[in-house]
Amino acid sequence: MKGHRRRPRLRLSATRIAQFAAGDRPPIGEVTVLPSLRGKGGEGVAQRQAIGRTTPPSRKRLSPPPGRRATLRDIAGALGLSVAAVSRALNGHPDVSPTTRRRVLEVARQLNYRPNAAAKTLVTHRSRLIGVYFLGQERARFSHPFASEVVDGLLEGLATAGYDLLVFGDGLYDGGAPSFMDLAAHRQIDGAVFLGLRTDDPRWGELARLPFPLVTIDVPVEGERAVSVGCDHIEGARLMARHLAALGHRRIAMINGHRWAPVSWERLTGFTAGLRQVGLEWEEACLVEGDFTEASGYQGAVELLRRRPRPTAIFAASDLMALGVLRAAREMGIAVPEELSVGGYDDISDAARASPPLTTVHQPRRQLGVAAAQSVVGLIERGHDGIPSRVLLRPELVVRASTGPAPSSSP
Amino acid sequence: MKGHRRRPRLRLSATRIAQFAAGDRPPIGEVTVLPSLRGKGGEGVAQRQAIGRTTPPSRKRLSPPPGRRATLRDIAGALGLSVAAVSRALNGHPDVSPTTRRRVLEVARQLNYRPNAAAKTLVTHRSRLIGVYFLGQERARFSHPFASEVVDGLLEGLATAGYDLLVFGDGLYDGGAPSFMDLAAHRQIDGAVFLGLRTDDPRWGELARLPFPLVTIDVPVEGERAVSVGCDHIEGARLMARHLAALGHRRIAMINGHRWAPVSWERLTGFTAGLRQVGLEWEEACLVEGDFTEASGYQGAVELLRRRPRPTAIFAASDLMALGVLRAAREMGIAVPEELSVGGYDDISDAARASPPLTTVHQPRRQLGVAAAQSVVGLIERGHDGIPSRVLLRPELVVRASTGPAPSSSP
DNA sequence: TTGAAAGCGATACCAC
DNA sequence: GTGGTATCGCTTTCAA
């Protein structure tokens, strides 16, 4: 491996931009490569010394070293200081004279200095990198309607705190599910966020030994170095139950998610509790188990809608499944909401645009991500003191056209 | 900074899992922290020597050093080799004896050795990190319907090649748009992918000086170290034009994206060319400029639908805008497709579920991402030889219910 | 084929 | 306050 780098040069033709702005044609950037090689080894040292000699601690305007980025040594050399002093000045240590700090900062700016994360990581054992694990989704990671917005919030929260995000995920690597630790070890991540973790994941035991803080979304985990962030799904499902009951429905069915997701248990619990609160009985027979996907919602609906007497309302534990229910109803010629009310969960963007628009339980997905970010960062930087071990955000019922009064007579 | 690390320990109660599987209650992981500190400094050296002494080159079963990850020195010590030899063996250099390599690999496995990316990056100046820049989207990054799936493909392609993905984006950092280089310099990324780059971005000139290969999505850029990946939008828009014309439409309007996106020019060009091919005239008056958002599509539609004679078909250069058109038509009491045909572009997931389902031009988004990944990696590892400077994927017309025969009489 | 040693760029300890 | 220096884990000459 050579370690050398070409430095490309791009010239964007301003005329072309102007032309395109005038609706004429699109701009084309032109990139040409100049053969200047990246300096290394002895050459680099020579350059550094040259900088030290030609620029004594004076007011001369400095410019970045050619062919490579400025380092602490460059700043130290230009100022006649030691790298140690420069490092302290740059990192805000108290034991630097104000004058020195000022001069260091100024030269750093002039040389366009940027700290080298790799070097920093090597010596501090801290990378300022957070790993996000997308679990149980073969292909849809960022394009998963629920996960994507959580990750958006996560990214925002982490950027604010000065952390970067690294993505891991099932199905991305050869040879089945790789160990969490293997993925993490290479990049020395400081913390991790888990999305879609199932309780039957063979690697559950591994979470044990992760040498960094972790946050799970929607999966309760107890411990000093772990935080779980999620919505209060018991409450969310309860809201839906009361809404349907208030509309006069009595034969209410539910299509739940799979049993390996803690949220399934929570939503079922909340839903049945809600029905019970208004004096309705819940029968096990009204429950069908899906897996959160559209297809499973469709299937579950077909099964439920063939029963006699037919349920007048179906609560699906995810919007995707609820969309499947709508499709099944449409195909079976059952009018929504006249003959059947349908409730979903998540409030994904498709929900509002479905026909009819879906009544659902809104989850503040972006805030979930932000909360997750704050939790990992808090755990990393301040330890578990003052960091809640569990963060529960409030879900909200969104009533749209897919639910309506119970039909007076049953088919 | 101490550099010390606690090692957490988590015990997952197996009974609880079983109970939950039985529908009883959800599993709770229990994490407890043991006070064993991470070794460093002198301590670490002592451990290493101990390993070297207690395990001479024998067949003894080795285990990872306690409290820290194994390093090359551990392997070397256990085998009585030099770190240099171990490094060469692990990296597949030819100048190692087969026996040595075998033994090194075996010990590495036993010690659960993982290379340290930071150390490697520091010396090789290669990080195996690719930066993806989300531009021009304040909040929706991963949750943007177009971008998310491209990034999914990108991630997949990169993982296959052994690269990781780092995310940058506008609005993530304080103080306005930061320089591309500033973001990249810190982490020493090996290459970059740009999404949503506008031709009026003040940082265009900066692309010039990026010291690594770059790929733009949907923005043509020429140069040895740059590749642009996208769809053939001229062709895509042409397909839509011919489809609408074939349905008998004569008064056809278009809502384009903003002029700072090269795709806008391409789609307009293709659309007018398509109309011309079938003998239709294109009037500038039929063009409204939006900005790809739903709101701008709505506005544009309101404007167009107030005109007399009213257009009988509208082509929106993005599905989001087309959804806005549908909303406008609905509010204005104009039936789609009976009185107005609507075409979109992108085939986002909402398109198929819209009512009526949207006729649109499908873009293979995931493949776009995969192609981008292959391009950056190719550029990095093999230089520009044999790497196409531009990759154009084929779009596809998807006909759904939002387009239909032109109404015989005009309102 | 292997080993010794010089860094890569930064931090932190210990003197002064 | 400041400087010298060992060190993080690894790659890469250069000798042996």
Task: Give a brief description.
The structure is a homodimer of 411-residue chains. Chain A is of the alpha/beta class. Chain A has 15 helices and 15 strands.
Protein model, in words:
- Chains A, B: Residues 37-69 are annotated as: Disordered.
- Chains A, B: Residues 70-124 form the HTH lacI-type domain.
- Chains A, B: Pfam families: LacI, Peripla_BP_3.
- The structure is a homodimer of 411-residue chains.
- Chain A is of the alpha/beta class.
- Chain A has three domains: 14-121, lambda repressor-like DNA-binding domains (434 Repressor (Amino-terminal Domain), Orthogonal Bundle), CATH 1.10.260.40; 129-230 and 366-393, Response regulator (Rossmann fold, 3-Layer(aba) Sandwich), CATH 3.40.50.2300; 233-364, Rossmann fold (3-Layer(aba) Sandwich), CATH 3.40.50.
- Helix content of chain A is 40%, strand content 17%.
- Chain A contains 15 helices and 15 strands.
- In chain A, the strands form four sheets. Chain A has a six-stranded parallel beta sheet, sandwiched between helices.
- In chain A, helix 3 (72-79) crosses helix 4 (83-90).
- Chain A is elongated.
- The termini of chain A are far apart.
- The relative contact order of chain A is 0.10.
- The interface between A and B is large, with 94 and 94 residues.
- Strand 2 of chain A pairs parallel with strand 7 of chain B, so a sheet runs across the interface.
- The first copy, chain A, binds a DNA duplex (16 and 16 nucleotides) through residues 1, 3, 40-41, 44, 71-73, 81-85, 87-88, 91, 95-97, 100, 115-116, 118-125.
